[in-house]
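Hey all, quick one. A colleague (J.T.) asked me to put the alpha-L-arabinofuranose job into the tracker so the inputs and the structure tokens live in one place instead of scattered across chat threads. No bug as far as I know, just bookkeeping. Sequence used:
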Amino acid sequence: MIYSTKLFRHALVLSFFVLIGICVSAQKAAEIAIDTKASKHNISRHIYGHFSEHLGRCIYDGFWVADTMKVPRQGRIRLDVVEALKKINVPNLRWPGGCFADEYHWRDGIGKPKERPKMINTHWGGVTEDNSFGTHEFLELISLLKCEAYIAGNVGSGTVEEMAKWVEYVNFNGVSPMAALRKENGREEPWRVTYWGIGNENWGCGGNMTAEYYAGEYKRYATYARNYPGTPLRKVAGGANSRDYNWTEVCMKNIRANQMWGLSLHHYTIPTGNWSKKGSATKFDEKEYFQTMKNCLFMDELVAKHAAIMDKYDSAKRVALVVDEWGIWTDVEPGTNPGFLYQQNSLRDALIAGTTLNIFNNHSDRVRMANLAQTVNVLQAIILTEGRKMLLTPTYHIFDMYKVHQDAKYLPFTISTPDYTLENQNLPAVNVSASQDSTGTIHLSFVNIDPNKNIPVTISMDAVNWKTVTGQVLTSAKLTDINSFDKMNTIQIAKFSAAKKEGNKLVVDLPSKSVVVIELK
Ligand code: AHR
């Protein structure tokens, strides 16, 4: 009797451990090892840049509103939008396009607003552009944001002289026709803008050029875009459309590394992968979500391949890879102008932003600037407005959480992660990046793209003595959740407490479909 009770107890204990074993194996862990001593460079803050085109309601009815609108304004610039952008330390703003840039003639946008000529915005809805927002207004916005301007010049339909004079107008401090004109228009001091794009998408809307033809044009335009005293330019050559590796090869071969500061790359995440039916911003199933995340993760391979080509011609990594248009591009919201590219923004988009910014951080030896498309009311917007109302999208919160990486020392790592599996297809469930700021504080940003499983993560770190751990998390009940004008805070940053120190290791329980930023001091 005694024997059989003992046997029963043993059997019970054994089955308990088997059960635990099953649970543990169902919840596979990710392991990360950070090599703090191997750090060689910083993550440029300019990776966290934004993009504002004369498109739909981004400039007009976004930043720039009627002078009768009852919102805090400086002139016609909306100050609630400015304050929200300042909070995330926006480092630079790209303007005036996009495709619009190669149709924009800057002299139409200076002088008395009433006398400025109107034009048709042929790319974006065929609406009338009244040029009330021009160089002075943009640079006023830049000074309110306390960030750097990144101006895209017109190669497609402009002239070398037109771009040269724009640079002179904006940057020259001496006696010259363009400096005099600027002063006549009320601005004494030059603005000293260093970042200049030499055209945009010149393989497409920027002139339908071949790579060879563009490389020649680049050199002509770039030669006459002068460095005026105190303002050396950082010129960015118009780069490849997504996987057009030949474009990068030809530009790197034909334009010397000392003739350009950067070479751009544009890549959008299209949920279905089909440009004519991209998929809804708010109504999608798990299958479409999986496909979207697969398309988003492709950015890693894309950047690595373009960077490898650049390495062949520029082993010193002088030329920056500038991903100056990225983000999710869905079908427009039903009932809105198809030419205005207005889309809502869900938790899925926050996971895309977190993942893509991790990819850029992890390639920050070459990627030194990037611009999400676009800031307000267009594509993967971080801010949406409706009349006087303004809301912050889930993507905005990612930029808020990740701002700690700006200009911090990049920390290399190795990772082993379980897969997120759907219908026999696998994606890495966890992605991460890490940095150490000037005070010695370490930040880790994790994304768990698996919508169904929490994932335990163990992080080991050499040579760093940290004592406290705190964190922030962004998640929600459903991937399709959004912030709407009726419910503006469905998705917001919350305190994260499922991270603890175990011996020398950090152990984090990453919630499903979440972005977590951990701070170690
Ligand atoms: O961001 C919208 C458009 O996408 C830009 O104008 C263009 O450069 C790209 O094709």
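Adding what we noticed when we looked at it: The longest helix spans residues 286-313. Residues 1-8, 11-25 have pLDDT under 50 and may be disordered.
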